[in-house]
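Researcher: I'm comparing several assemblies side by side, and this is the next one on my list. It has 1046 residues spread over three chains. Same procedure as the others: predict the full complex and return the structure.
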Amino acid sequence: MYDVLIIGCGVTGAAAAFQLSKYRLKVGILERENDVALGTTKANSAILHAGYDPEPGTLMAKLNVRGVELARELCQKLDVPYHNCGSLVLAFSEEERPAVEELYRRGIENGVPGLRLLTGDEARALEPNLSGEVVAALHAPSAAICSPWEYCLALAETAVKNGVELHLSTAVTGLERTAEGWTVRTSSGEFQSRFVLNAAGVDAAIVHDLAAPHAFDIHPSRGQYYLLDKSEGGRVSRVIFQCPSKVGKGVLVAPTVHGNLIVGPDAERVEGNDTATTGDGLCFVRETARKSVPSVNFRESIRNFAGVRASTDRGDFILEESAPGFIDLAGICSPGLSAAPAIGEYAVELLQKAGLALERKDDFVCERRRTRFKELPPQERGALVEREPAFGRVICRCETITEGEILEALHGPIPPCSVDGVKRRVNAGMGRCQGGFCGPRVVDILARELHKSPGEIVQDQAGSWLLDRETKTNAEPNVGRDDLGAPLNSAHGGPSRPALQSTEGGASHV
Amino acid sequence: MYDLIVIGGGPAGLAAACAAWEGGLRKILIVERDRELGGILNQCIHNGFGLHHFKEELTGPEYAGRFVKLLGETGVEVRLDTMVLEVTGHRQVHMVGKSTGYRVEEAKSIVLAMGCRERTRGAIAIPGTRPAGVFTAGAAQRYVNMEGWMPGKRVVILGSGDIGLIMARRMTLEGAKVLACVEVMPYSGGLNRNIVQCLHDYDIPLYLSHTVTDIRGRDRVEQVVVSQVDASRNPIPGTEMVFDCDTLLLSVGLIPENELTRQAGIEIDRRTNGAVVYENMETSLPGVFACGNVCHVHDLVDFVTAESQKAGAAAAAYVRGGGAAAPDRVLEVKNGDGVTYTVPQRIRPHRVDKLCGLFFRVNRVCGDSEILVKSGDTQIARFKREHLAPGEMERIDLPRALLDRAEGELTVSIREVEQ
Amino acid sequence: MKELICIVCPKGCHLKVDEEKGFAVTGNACPRGAEYGKLELTNPTRVVTSTVRCEGGAHPRCPVKTDRAVPKGKIADVMRALDTVSLTAPVRVGQVVLENVCGTGVDVVATRDLICP
């Protein structure tokens, strides 16, 4: 019997687990994927917002400001890449100036420190690459950037170190009220718990409906992004926003803690977990971003991605006890990452109000360190390699990540089981070649350390297989067969004959 | 203190080290990040290498093996499994290896021979989902040829560069179904012989002026959508074809790997993405040379070898001469009509022995053409070609006597002869 | 008259072969092109390159090639035959790994050294 079971291990579930692990409780996390942080947490702007955006008096306003205050200390203690770079919101015309001023007023009311209204020239003095069109800007020095997946991982790892049980690849299929609390049915058996926290992200409404009458809808809103090479990382040194609209905070241009430049997102309502990028969406992102920073060089793109945000019709986080002992932590769209540790605190308060007795642990450990070879000075690198030769073998050459760091992650509190799991823990494969070089080597290490065949290693979530079969296993060569690879449907006929020159265009040389 | 440190033990580094040894240097170190020498040749198991250099047709591993053997007959020191992390402007080389630890070595001269990397999905912004099953052709080649694993069963290949074409045949022979090779340009980026023996031989369709416009599948690639593109390479709505496949291989270009070069403050040519070099492959940093694919992307390893021998010999001459020579007359080589880039970008005529080889690429397919070299408004040389294509690197040799008469700039351009 | 791209070398000459005049080849830059043009229309052949299993070496596969070209129609048979080969390190470049493959009179040879790590 658990005291609390948390459904979902994105940053919200991890933060709740972290806060609960300070108390003498039996806590478990049920995560349907094979790793933590696989939903919205791994695909967002990676911004810890200052807190001038949410409407005063909302949970969003309160928890955003509190969350970023907690994050500053947590990221330091838990060794999470964090940079307090500040942000600017730009007005491009006199018509937009009132919107920026309104954000300033909200910010003051929400208790955001250090806010300042700037002229266009003052803004350009801070950020020389800003557009000449900027007439005014709101400067928020308390805004920060972080590594969202490492933040989630650090919270989850610390929770695990303090006794929380993490059940990966465990999808919740049913919830049933019992005399003592809840029975949670999952893909890997039944769990009993006195209390349940619903931190299921985009699927939180589905989980809610398993336990309580339908109360809210989640309208997943997809945002598409560009991630640019480090050569563009210095294009701006603060998070550059445009004036927010009804659909979101708009397209931003920002440095990342890894030294890249992130550009995005658009906002488009989609069905379910649709994280595909589209030609139109990416084009919109490029064009809109150039309005803020005209010189962004999109030829330096190294990756595109999209994430879905769990927007609801309520316009605020949904943090409430929806059935006895069943608490929703739902509708966590932006500023969810910023608010996460405060949402965790709030969840603890809600549990206490619902009857959970809390007793502080005196052996709570709030500490985490990982080796970052690249950041060490030469003498320390030498000493480290001498002690542990695996730190002398560079696996990811773009990011200078060593085998030692990968092995360290594999022996950590939540070991990775996939190539991207390794990437999220140590950055191997995050650089400009996107794993082209280190991918096969990471597969090799995973297979060796997990005692698996390379064919069993996945790219990311279950089902994302990488290798089909070994060569030399009597596969029939595809030679001289008639079944030409016809496309399923073709707007202009079947496959053409192989040609050196296009049959449609230009002079033929054949 | 080494006479020469060669960074990279692929074909470029091997040839440069051997040439420097022949040139009289005796303290030479090759630093190689892999566990063996030979670089990418080790996974290029197909034949077609060596016709120029060895006058016979070899496979990649054989070609590499010949040079490894030659190197074995010299006293060149080799550090394997060792990664260079930094090259300073004072020719200090920071490196780390499992067995060698963290070291900083100094050298009188350096040859940069780090090769290149492949462009990825992110670089060309292919929309769609992000499932497993999208590989660069080179990564797939490593899996198939060296690790002995097939990355998929049904394959679409984007890009008709040589690696993509070679992998089309290789995957087919190993039992995969290659459904299509898709090329955004109206002509192939690979050698014609590879289109014949890798695609035609196995009835693999080549779609020119087409590109991949969508990738579908949550966990693993399930479909890719291919569309025709217009003259400005924008997809034409209504031309979509859907291929049921589990794998997309990308052969969409190579990028010289110049992070160390940039860090060292060496001038880079934004067209080659490699260092700007003089006639002897010396970069803007005296005593530092660049050769092979780190300098500009080649299509034939034989040319890499020739260029690297030049760099190795020049490094030897530099060290023997006691360092940087006095500054001398420099001709800037400019790209005229039809020319994408030239290597070298700068020529010091009095350093040229008899002939100065000049590599370049054209920006379009041309039939009967003339290659014109001008100094100012005066044409100083003219070369004829029956066929020119962007996928095929061209070479002309400029005699020293002509260079001596040239002033200021040389411009290389293409004029297609009217038929 | 048949038009071909020569595959003998990277140059890729555009050949014309006249079947009616004893497979006379034009457009070739060297004698090997003339030979290829004729052969391609009478008995096309290819060198096959692939790998075979190898135990105990630095890599689990050893690259190999047919030491001469084999008839195009035999390529699939050669590939099937290679599935049955398994080497044990050390392997030397040039070492015959399969003699007279599929009765072609051509040997399959290793194209690299594979020593025990």
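Model: For your comparison table: The first strand of chain A starts at residue 2 and ends at 7.
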